[in-house]
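Good day; I would like, with your permission, to put a structural problem before you. A protein sequence and the structure tokens that stand for its backbone fold form the material at issue. Thank you for your consideration; the sequence and its tokens are set out here:
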Amino acid sequence: MRPTVSWTPAADLPPGTTDLEPVAEALGTGDVLVLSGAGLSTESGIPDYRGEGGSLSRHTPMTYQDFTADAHARRRYWARSHLGWRTFGRARPNSGHRAVAAFGRQGLLAGVITQNVDGLHQAAGSEGVVELHGNLARVVCLSCGSLTPRRELARRLEEANAGFEPVAAGINPDGDADLTDEQVGDFRVVPCAVCGGILKPDVVFFGEAVPPQRVEHCRRLVREAASVLVLGSSLTVMSGLRFVRQAAQTGKPVLIVNRDPTRGDQHALTRVALPLGTALTTVAGRLNIPVDSQATA
């Protein structure tokens, strides 16, 4: 069974607004739990899945089942991911990430949960970020469990595939570049340097479960927060939507900043349909909170 990667908005969903006052009020009160998605990183040059021009219109993400069962699928994935990493790994935090970090420094946040795998929250200075779906900067062996930096794997793949320089049609939120099978060619995948096992990015693929202890950590953050602020997520997949539902069921305000309708709109006090960088820096200005002009990484 393929995982859910899209949904059709209900006709009776409340419309988006440009009024940022409820967001400013929530942050001013404090104990806000941020839940961020791919839309927060689009201004850093990483496209999202479902927004205008989103990658799902041309790209089906790799599933855990395909990756583990099919050597050809793994070769295709690593060829595309290796090329995409050259761009993905150079991405830098944008004003939205920096605003979230500024809110944290002011003690206004109960925590940050991100569905993104780009590490840009941390690069902007946010601390204690829960990476719900992992981080592309790490690689894990499916046999021995050893973790290695992505830069080390990139070096090994460069050595094994000298001259591999195809031109990609685009890059996706998971760091996967769009390549044809002809461009992938006979790309060589390298094994774990410790045990010879299969290497996988330390991220949760579609069709793969988020580790239970990580889910429980996030549920605890929701219980302890005064409100939940969703930034740039369509909430299509249950991994993020469940925390919005949990907050709503316990009477905690849910606020969403996302240009398009989301699967969580029915649970939200408001959905602000503005670009993330503009919205969050505007809110920071209203609260007299300085936002760093550059990333801290």
The longest strand covers residues 134-141. Residues 57-90+137-203 form a domain with the SIR2/SIRT2 'Small Domain' fold (CATH 3.30.1600).
